[in-house]
Specification:
By secondary structure, this protein is of the alpha/beta class. The chain has a single domain, classed as Alpha/beta knot. Helix content is 42%, strand content 22%. It contains 5 helices and 5 strands; from the N terminus they run βαβαβαβαβα. Strands 2-1-4-3-5 form a 5-stranded parallel beta sheet. Helix 3 links the parallel strand 3 and strand 4. The longest helix is centred in the C-terminal third of the chain and has 20 residues. It starts with a strand and ends in a 7-residue tail after the last helix. The relative contact order is 0.23. The mean pLDDT is 93.
């Protein structure tokens, strides 16, 4: 089984790259994981936001395999604490799927096609956040979830 964080490709500042690489290194001994970045639409004008969302969503959907278990991170999703997210990770692992794909949309979110393809939708917060920050938060929470499941001394409550 492999976990995949599926996002839209964008130029990242050094602090984002370092944060992502740090959590990918921490997760890898616990669970095979990869970041998969796909090319979305170009330009981000508000006037074309629906077109951009549709094109970005099409790119994200094209990266999925038919038998993937898809988890969408979206501010309108289910709110969980870290222990609840760890339980979800355990459920994902027990699903029998070869890939668990976590999706983070672009600046304008994702369309209904992506939302309906997701078996689970989870919210980090009611706050909307930059996709770079969301990527780091996603990996941190995945790592924290595994730390909870494996009894590692990372999660302190």
């Amino acid at each position: 089984m492999k976990f995949v964080l599926l996002t839209l490709k964008s130029a990242k500042p050094a602090w984002v790259k370092e944060g992502l690489e740090d959590y990918l290194r921490k997760i890898d001994p616990l669970q095979k994981i990869e970041m998969l970045e796909v090319t979305g639409s170009t330009g981000a004008s508000r006037e074309n936001s629906e077109v951009k969302k549709k094109e970005d969503s099409k790119s994200l959907l094209a990266a999925l395999k038919d038998d993937d278990y898809v988890v969408l991170f979206d501010e309108r999703g289910q709110s969980l604490d870290s222990e609840g997210f760890a339980k979800k990770i355990n459920q994902f692992q027990m699903s029998g799927k070869k890939r668990i794909v976590f999706i983070i949309g672009g600046a304008y979110g994702v369309n209904d096609d992506v939302k309906s393809r997701a078996q689970t939708t989870i919210s980090f917060s009611k706050l909307v956040m930059n996709h770079w920050v969301a990527q780091i938060v996603a990996l941190e929470q995945i790592y924290r979830g595994f730390a909870i499941l494996k009894g590692l001394p990372y999660h302190n409550v």
